[in-house]
Design brief:
It is a single chain. With 288 residues, the chain is mostly beta strands. It is built from one helix and 24 strands. An eleven-stranded mixed beta sheet has the order 6-7-3-11-13-15-17-23-19-22-21.
Amino acid sequence: MKNLLLIIFLVGCFGYARATETEKIKIEKTLKFATPSPDNVLEIYNINGSLQIEGYDGQEIMVTAELTLTAKTQELLEKGKREMSLGVWEDDSALVLYNKAPFIHNQRVEGPCNCNWNWGKDVNYEFSFDFKVKVPRSVNLNVRTVNDGFITVDGMNSNVSAHHVNGDVTLTQMGGSVEAKTINGELLVRHTKAPTGGNSYYSLNGDVNVYYPGEPDADITFKSFNGSFYTDMERMEVMPPAWTKEVTEKNGSTKYKLTQKNNIKVGKGGNLLAFETFNGDIYVKKSK
């Protein structure tokens, strides 16, 4: 999944006492890839609000985004209406949706989205986007949001990457590989097929629940500081823990960090399933 978007948010502190003016604006768009291919990826980079994505047996991407603006005065609300919009960027293989405003700077790069906040500018209003999107099942997904709301994805047969910071991530009827991550929230993933390739599941402060049909042949790694690992898989073998070494160079000195991960072999082993949480439990179960 290349052709990602680097988004630099230059936003102000939303520290005013109480907003008195609110307006909701509905935005609808129908999009289509210029060149359909297995590499097509839909990317959504959101700041505040939920992402609800549904796979379907069609060709077009149907987007409904509700922009909510809140301000202390009507004048500031009108300013928000002039500044905030839904940005769309595209090339032959990627379609990118993002929050567009004068204080949000966008730059196309190769690699993941980095979100850098600069508190030197006072925006004077609050904003959020809540997305509801219907996507062809074969389109790869790379979706992000930061505050409020949740991420739900249902019925995709492609590669799905979903990251949240402050909210839950729920992925259901997943037929492809998954990379799911949240910092402060619960993580739930339901697979319809035995996973292929590498799959990773991470929550810093929350439980991780993942369901597979039957018992897939896989190599499982898991790590939790204040939690436990639970599974109802029967064809499993506990393997010796694995240690990884991270090397950092700073001020002419070298530091080494050793990290231990526990390993389980399910069936014949094979595809890697990586689980990690800090304050939470990990549950790996067979679908019922």
